[in-house]
Amino acid sequence: MTQSRLVPFIVAVALFMDNMDSTVIATSLPAIAADIGTSPLTLKLAVTSYLLSLAVFIPMSGWTADRFGARTVFRAAIAVFVLGSIGCALSSSLLHFVLARIVQGMGGAMMTPVGRLVLVRTIDRRELVNAMAWVSIPAMIGPLMGPPLGGFITTYATWHWIFLINVPMGLLGIVLVTRYIENIKSEVPERFDFAGMALSGTAVAGLTFGMSVAGFDIVPWPIVLGIIGIGTIALGFYIAYARRAPAPVLDFSLMRLPTFRASLIGGFLFRIGVGAMPFLLPLLLQVGFKLSPFHSGLITFTSTMGALIVKGAAPWTLRRFGFRTVLIANAILGGLSIMACAIFSATTPFAAMIAVLMIGGFFRSLQFTSVNALAYAEVPVARMSRATALTAVGQQVSLATGVALGALTVEMVVRLKAQPTIMASDFPPGFLLVGLIAASSALIFLMLPPNAGAEMADRMPATKRTSDPRVE
């Protein structure tokens, strides 16, 4: 296997562990809570603590990769994630479990952005679209595969194996990273921005944590609004601070690049719809249609079939039509595929549901691949680490926002009707809202120049290409 294929595979395995682990315990919370002597509602702290740890440590990922080398940090991140997984499996109390999830989040916070940094620094830009198709698949199938896999393991084994399966995958990843990935680092590492880290960490943590618990009966609404308010205020202070900081941990000056700006803002809007799907769809199938977690998981997992097709279709599609056309059309089609779930009912044939989900999985995965690749079209090599950190933060907040909006919409519909029981008829407004938001990202991509990302899509004439597209 060549490096252009092996490196994306290594990164994809690590990202799969991270994406799946954020949702895999959802269906196992009752069993874990009973075993360690607490309630499932209280154990929701384990979910939110993982997201909070991710949010806090992502901003520093770019600097650590520049300072110590991408291979060193990526390898260490996998090791920390594995240690956190072992800690979760060995936990005997709520405190131990939450602390282990925080350790896992620290590893995951480094794995995602640094893994993408390894990709963009190793792979030629004209081959980056194909590589991004590999790493977009874990982002699609991880959240969808997590709940049914967690339910299957809990039912037929014990919940401990949810975390222990990460150990062999992680050890294999460490070996492959050590052998096949170069330790690229900055020749002159900049000083760490402690003040920026404090402000950005507070902002991202407040927004992510607040959005994650909004719509659920975990934290009272005044406290939720207060947390989101603190995050928003901290973000405002950070933006003002970053304008005069020589090396900010989150570099918003990258927003001056049209392709990066479109990728971040348009991708944020589109991921709101995608982020809501792993929450709304299983809940509709299990609570609304009374399907078992296993059968629900089999249906939702079919969307990954469409995602796998993109592996071969993305490079050809972008080369044929270009980033701008693909992103505009795909945003609309992807949003419509999410809204199509609003017509599902208990009498809808499973074949029809599967067809809609497979087609939607294709569009969503193609959009992920295109957006992730476009982000680096104009970013100089020296600023790649900052781009990956800012992109990872945007993705984390957008997915949390999607879950929050989906949950909040369902809750409002339930409260407005006479019967407070959740029914299948309560879910269509949620699908319509998040699907519409996802489709609205087309307006952002509409502002892209027609030749945006032409070199990455391999649409430039040979005479206009540089000898090494990674050098700027």
Descriptive account of the structure:
- The protein is mostly helical.
- It folds into three domains: 1-190, MFS general substrate transporter like domains (Growth Hormone, Chain: A, Up-down Bundle); 193-248; 251-472, Up-down Bundle (Growth Hormone, Chain: A), CATH 1.20.1250.20.
- The chain is built from 18 helices and no strands.
- The longest helix has 33 residues, at 384-416.
**CATH homologous superfamily designation of the largest domain:** MFS general substrate transporter like domains
- Overall pLDDT, averaged? 82
**H/E topology pattern:** HHHHHHHHHHHHHHHHHH
- Give the strand content: under 5%
In the predicted model, the low-confidence regions spanning at least 5 consecutive residues are 460-472
Q: Given the helix and strand composition, which structural class is it?
A: mainly alpha
The number of helical segments is 18
Question: What is the subunit organization of this protein?
Answer: single chain
- Domains counted in the coordinates: how many? 3
CATH topology of the largest domain: Growth Hormone, Chain: A
Q: What's the shape?
A: globular
What is the CA-CA span between the terminal residues? 28 Å
Radius of gyration: 21 Å
CATH class of the largest domain: Mainly Alpha
Secondary structure tally: strands: 0
